[in-house]
Amino acid sequence: MSKNSKDKIPNSPNTLLHYFARSPASAKKITNPSTPTSALAATKAASTVSTGTPKGKSAVKKELEVVKEEKKPVVPTVKDDDDEEEEIVSRKKRRRVIVFDDPEDEDASGENEENRQHNNNNNDHDAETETKRFELSSFERQDETEETSNNAKITKKKSNDPEECAESQPEEPVQKKIKLEPENNGPDELKTTLDEPTVWAHQKLDFLKPNKIKDIHGHRPGHEKYDGRTLFVPESFKTSLTPAMHQWWELKSNNFDCVLFFKVGKFYELYHMDAEVGVKELGFSFMKGEFAHSGFPEQAYDRMSTTLVEKGYKVARVEQTETPEMMQDRCKSMRSVTKFDRVVRREICQVTLKGTEVFGQQVRITANHQPRYMMAIVESAARQALSGARYGVCFIDTSIGQFHVGEFEDDNQQSRLLTLLSHYPPVLILHERNIGIGGMQRIFKTLLANVKREALTNESQFWSGEKTLKYLAENFYGGSANESSKWPKVLRTLVDDTDSLGLTPKESHQLALKALGGCVWYLQRCLLDQQVLSLATFEEYVPLDEQTGIPSGNDRIADANANRFMVLDSITLNNLKVVGMEGSLIERMDHCCTKFGKRLFHHWVCAPSCERMVILERQEAVSELIENVNLLQDVRQVLGQLPDLERLLAQIHGFGNAKCSRNHPAGRAILYEEHSYGKKKIGDFISTLNGFRSLLALPELFSGVNAKLLVRLTQTSSTNADGCFPKHMETQIKFFDNAFDHEKAMQGGVIAPEKGVDEEYDAVEQDIESLKRELEEYRQEQSKYFGCNVVYFGNDKKRFQLEVPESRAKKATSEYTLEGTKKGKNAVKRFHTEETRQFLRQMMQLEDRRKAVLKDLARRIFEKFSLEYDMWKGCVDLVATLDVLTSLAEYARSEGAACVPELVEKEHVDQRALIELEEGIHPCIGADTAENYIPNGITMGAAENDKGASLVLLTGPNMGGKSTLMRQVGLLAIMAQIGSRIPAQSCRMTLIDRIFTRLGASDDIMAGHSTFLVELNETSAILKHATRDSLVLLDELGRGTATYDGTAVAGAVVHFLADLKCRTIFSTHYHNLVDNFHEDPRITLGHMACMVENEESDDPTQETVTFLYRYTDGACPKSYGFNAAKLAGMPPAIIKRAYELSKTVEAEALKRKILMKLLTNQPQADIKDLVVKLKSCRF
């Protein structure tokens, strides 16, 4: 670097030097200011530079003073009688620049506070006072080689408690800004700063090194009991720390896998490895100091935590649960006080990651409507070899507090478990530690490869069924599960009836309750168990293909368990592209207006109905909505304005939870933005009320409808006997409308109830009014005594002073204590008496009572609202169904789907299944290709005489549309059974109980499965589970192995499915297979038509194939593979050579075929003679 390089460095703050100067290298210890005044000035100067050009333009006077180099750079910590910490100072040779204040700098400093969350170098200023926040130094580790020095410069003493310093106000405004700069700022120093990487203090810690790291129990990674959620921190290291940093390491030791948002005053601070995450993922800047440190203000918690959670991190919110005054009182009550006691108590209030999101006062409800499931899976070895395994599952949507618990047997292919994972895709998996190399490991490597997983230890973390029931009984539901108490009905059905205590699981549900225990333990660790479990919404999960029979009545639990739905396994959902984002069936059909409607629509599509009457009711409702366009638009306008009521109900329930308010750390948290949080709570509550109020228009809006389902969804029982709409909802809404002034509550962030709503509040208000009357009477007495008008003066703790004109004040006796005087024209004197002091004490006591009542009043109003949770939730379920019906109607109108599928009812069980489709169109094609799409129809089975073939053997040229036709039939069948209209001319069908697909070809490297094995696994599941009412779609089975082997396997499968008489489309390019079934009455031959030019030419490159994309009866003679090769751009020479080889192979095959026919017709004796002669021949 040249000598003039220093002059070439610009003075702008946006320089590379300025940027790297914020992250000092470890080799160069950063010095601290020698005095609080210089520290304040240095920080203000730095913050002013970092925000750009200051607003003030006036010239400033500068004084340069050279500070002599200190002989001893390390200054010891000095403590006073209160054990207050001093700031450790080490100084180097510096220049001190004194800058006089410009009046406009105050505006510039105001910008610093606004940019606090964007520029973390300004984090050392208080948000309100703009003063230096000295508490951050209390987190610095003390130097073990400290020495006492008489020449040391000691900074201003400060309290151990960071918050006390953060809230302190300066007695006088700062008059000077002192800017400290290193004197040597030459090229060599610049080069050193730029070249040396930053090595933070935590990166040097021995116990954090990979070869020495341990969990809190001393286990190393690789040990069977190693718990990566914790960290061993040596006690000797912790005792050398300051109290606040000791507190941080204690929390980090127990939550090593979390990013700690550590509350200090009004800011969440990130230290050490967490600070690195903040800088990397959130765009923070490191603050100055020897250890990594960054942070952000309290009001930005929602954005910051949500960002980290979306990126896969686990965030622990650490709040102060004491004020400095409370800390001092605690220390006074203790017999012995150590330095680690002299810091405000902090506790983790919530641990958040994907799968445990709970929306509350600091985290708003997101726009993403999809549920994020936390799922616990317990696997038990099968009783018999090659018979699969038994699984216990529990999965939770924490945003609405809904639990699903179940247990089931599964096959070798894990069909049921894979179907569960596809219908309810988890974002967090809890499993047992050391699960072995079974089926779960294969799933973890494939389907769940990108899903976060956590291993739990048996018994201590994955609780047994008995321990789970005991915990629920002691902490939530009380009594035994056999009693008709608070226990959810589903949990009571899982308990052994022979146990009088009701704390023993049924033998058939041991694994299910164990999975529930794992979820409960994890919720407890995340401090969410009280909030989520208090909703007590449990449903039993039963696999869709489990034969249970149709229940009687309207039992919600039994309905969920009934075999009433079409089964779409994970393979089918993926092959048909039913779910997903772009181009999926759900994405194409979803026109729902509400988020809870979208969640229900997803369930309808993944599990279409198998009940004919249910489907017919939906068809009737959709048809009426389509015919009445005005009604459809009106109801969609009402629904479009609704918030996510389902999640808001769960959120309000959490706000009103008395147990959480009293016993949960969040109830003790000291929040500086509590006023804004109160406004958010009230705003969400009012939004919920407004949403339900708008739904009160539905009964009148739908008063003239005839569809039974619409009547049931929108009419009350008082107007129609079949109506299910809650009739008492209007009364409840009016009560909360009149309970408090909504506008005043939104402005003030506090609910002040109207008279008659809350007895306790009314009693306090009555006492205050009574005291005010006494005050007025006393004032009148004093006015009469002094002979003039006496008024009260003062505020807060100096209220109720008697203000008497000076001319009349001579009558004041010794009972009147002079508090102050006012000189001038209207001179007065102000007095206190024993009576006014008593009035003041009484008024302050009453105001404290009123404040306490108001603080709890909002919670009690939310609690009162949640007492009718079943009514509110029932209304949301009805509206969600209505929303899905309007979505189906809107889809039919916008896409022109006019066909109402005719559902043919079977007259007897053995009647052959049927599907007749005419001019059907693939429902997922885009608008740009819809005009050119060729409709297709197909027939499988027959309703008349029971003689139609159920299996179609489909052939045709490559790229001729075979796979598209198969997917089209499958998707239209799904649409028909959710009650939707379909894009076709006509459709007649019997109900389908399950759709199987074997489409495409791919291997599974992670599972160690070849392409052919993947094909056979999928085919095996079809052969095991298919019934007469199933729909099977098989595409080119057998192509993954030798031609003869593949043909044989395909032929055997075709025979099996033809005998089963299930509706099947089997596409193939094995023309030998087609010849074998040419005259089989169980099978229909069909192909995708095409036109061929120059077919007889010896040059295959001259052959031209025009795809007609039309299904036609009969077999296709060739697959025209050379046309596909030409379209792929293969060299003509290669195509010609392949054509010649193909002719040779065909000729040899034809000779063998002719020979076989000749031999078949000859007598057996002649064939034996021919064989003997051949053996005697020499070649």
UniProtKB/TrEMBL annotation:
Residues 27-192 are annotated as: Disordered. Residues 101-112 have a biased composition (Acidic residues). One of its GO terms (biological process) is mismatch repair. GO terms for molecular function: ATP binding; ATP-dependent DNA damage sensor activity; mismatched DNA binding. Residues 60-73, 113-142, 173-192 have a biased composition (Basic and acidic residues). PROSITE patterns: DNA_MISMATCH_REPAIR_2 (PS00486). GO terms for cellular component: MutSalpha complex. InterPro entries: DNA_mismatch_repair_MutS-lik_N, DNA_mismatch_repair_MutS/MSH, DNA_mismatch_repair_MutS_C, DNA_mismatch_repair_MutS_clamp, DNA_mismatch_repair_MutS_core, DNA_mismatch_repair_MutS_N, DNA_mismatch_repair_MutS_sf, DNA_mmatch_repair_MutS_con_dom. Residues 1030-1046 form the DNA mismatch repair proteins mutS family domain. Keywords: ATP-binding, Coiled coil, DNA damage, DNA repair, DNA-binding, Nucleotide-binding. SUPFAM superfamilies: DNA repair protein MutS, domain I (SSF55271), DNA repair protein MutS, domain II (SSF53150), DNA repair protein MutS, domain III (SSF48334), P-loop containing nucleoside triphosphate hydrolases (SSF52540). Residues 34-53 have a biased composition (Low complexity). The keyword Iron-sulfur does not apply. Pfam families: MutS_I, MutS_II, MutS_III, MutS_IV, MutS_V. Residues 754-781 form a coiled coil. Component of the post-replicative DNA mismatch repair system (MMR). Belongs to the DNA mismatch repair MutS family. This is DNA mismatch repair protein. It comes from Anopheles sinensis (Mosquito).
